[in-house]
Design a protein that fits this description.
InterPro entries: Gfo/Idh/MocA-like_OxRdtase_N, Gfo/Idh/MocA_Oxidoreductase, GFO_IDH_MocA-like_dom, NAD(P)-bd_dom_sf. The chain is of the alpha/beta class. Helices cover 34% and strands 24% of the residues. The protein contains ten helices and 14 strands. Strands 13-12-11-10-6-9-8-7-14 form a nine-stranded mixed β-sheet. It has a five-stranded parallel β-sheet with strand order 2-1-3-4-5, sandwiched between helices. The two termini are 32 Å apart.
Amino acid sequence: MAHEQRVFGIGVVGAGMAAKPHALALNALKGSIVVRGVWRRNRTELAQFCETYDFPAADSYEALLADPAVDAILVLTPPNAREEIVAAAARAGKHVLMEKPVERTTEAAERIVAACKNADVTLGIIFQHRFRAASIALAKMVASGELGTLCAVHLVVPWWRAQQGYYDKPGRGTFAQDGGGVLITQAIHSLDLMLSLTGPVTAVTALSATTRLHQMETEDFVAGGMEFANGAVGSLVATTANYPGSAESLTLNFTGASATLTGGNLTLNWLDGRTETIGEASNSGGGADPMAFPFDWHQAQIAEFAAAVLAGRQPSSTGHTALAVHRLIDALIRSGREGKRVEVQSL
């Protein structure tokens, strides 16, 4: 039976650095999605945020959960503050759309996914790189089989984050707040996009380190080899120590063509000599300003999540799919620490 289209109500929890593209996206979606309230513990910063984007401030998180017009909670807090927030939303029967990563550890992420599944509420995870026009175009071509068989994968995330103003902030780059370094905080977007196009990685051999450019608890450089379930092999380099930073690049080598995603652009080099370019020039947040990217990718993902909930289906990026990238990151870090080949835990 077709579901009647109606206004979708969202409550927002958290209004820090990551909230800006979400706020811009939600304002662009007015008419189909309405913000019922925003909650943040710091009342001064909450008031400033709500005034900037013309959103109503909620009296408490409990008030948001008690609002029958709230269909879903958009969780934008740091990962160390999420588990109880999501559990409370699930108990209240509210769907959840949440910033990456799911949590700091895979074990905590699994608890969040299970809580939503047991409460029969939808859990979506923000991985906006999937929603770039170039990514969508490539996903369709991969699914159609027109590129041939995947043979090799090359992922480079050559980003920059400064010590001053970024890693000097309390909790940044720590296990206690972030759960890790460049993989779980920055490269997780590219890793998720890669997995959505390639299928699962079965084993990795990696090196991970903290360069002399940063003073931080976790890694700012990871390089490694990857073995894929479909028989392809791949390489990865991810860092926040590449000044001044540049766009991430994912190349997939098929038997019929090589496809390269660089930021928001797709270049296809067909083995018969043809070349195609799809997409638009855009920043990706790889430089000193981590928020230097457009909000239309967030807009597309929020809209897709709302449509999925209203239609009673799963969105494309779920808690379950996010567990795959968490387990890949675990394997890369363990391989770098132990200096050996590590198998990736399967879903």
